[in-house]
Write a structure and sequence with these properties.
The chain has 83 residues and is an all-beta fold. It is 0% helix and 28% strand. It has a domain of 58 residues. β2 and β3 form a beta hairpin. The mean pLDDT is 85. It binds zinc ion (2 copies).
Length: 83
Amino acid sequence: MSETVCELTELPVSMCSHCRPKLPPVPERTAIVGQLIAARYAGHCGECSELIVEGDLIGCTEDGYWICEHCAEPEIDLRDLIP
Ligand SMILES: [Zn+2]
Ligand SMILES: [Zn+2]
C-alpha cells in the first residue's frame, strides 16, 4: 500500500504541510491593562460573553470592561511560541 501523494507538493500526504488540516486560528485577543487577576464577582466576558465565575482569571481592558483570560492578551504573547 503506497501512501497517497499530494498533487501539489508531490510529498506523501502525511508529510505535506498543505494537506494537513490547518490549525484553528488563534482568536483575536484584546490588550489588557496590567495583569490577569482572579475575578471577585461572577459576570460575563466583555468580548465573548463567556461566563466568568469567581476565581476565574480576567483582565481589564483599556475601555474598562472585564474580559476572560481567553480574550485577554497576556504580557507574554503565546502566539509568539506558535511557529
Ligand atoms: Zn499537499
Ligand atoms: Zn472572552
